[in-house]
């Protein structure tokens, strides 16, 4: 198993954990899990960055790599500051946006992993 495979699985697993914890937080079922959700989100972003850098090394398109790297920054910043954006009755819009940003991060990790593996003949 190579580093790209490990990083790709890290994106998948941390992404599933983040989504599950996010759903639990959204429903108000387990408010004490916020810190774990944030930690899993950080693992997701670090994994996304690792996949992006490894994919770049494998010859993945530079624009896609750049988007993944910048999307990771957006994911962290948006996650940290979402509570302060549009407070009140319309905050659900920010929560949906946060969910979309996370899903796109997972998708970018998947796309880059698949692209890099295909380029190296391991698809």
Task: Describe the structure in your own words.
- The protein is mainly alpha-helical and 123 residues long.
- The protein has one domain.
- The chain is 79% helix and 0% strand.
- Helix 2 (34-57) packs antiparallel against helix 3.
Topology (elements, then pairings):
Layout: H1 3-26, H2 34-57, H3 62-81, H4 91-119
Helix pairs in contact: 1-2, 1-4, 2-3, 2-4, 3-4
Question: Which structural traits does this protein have?
Answer:
elongated; 123 residues; mainly alpha; single chain
Structure, briefly:
The chain is mostly helical and 123 residues long. The chain has helices at residues 3-26, 34-57, 62-81, 91-119.
The pLDDT mean sits at 94
What is the number of beta strands?
0
Low-confidence stretches: none
Largest sheet properties? none
* Backbone structural class: mainly alpha
Instruction: State the end-to-end CA separation.
Output: 13 Å
Provide the number of structural domains: 1
**Rg from C-alpha positions?**
15 Å
Task: Work out the helix count.
Answer: 4
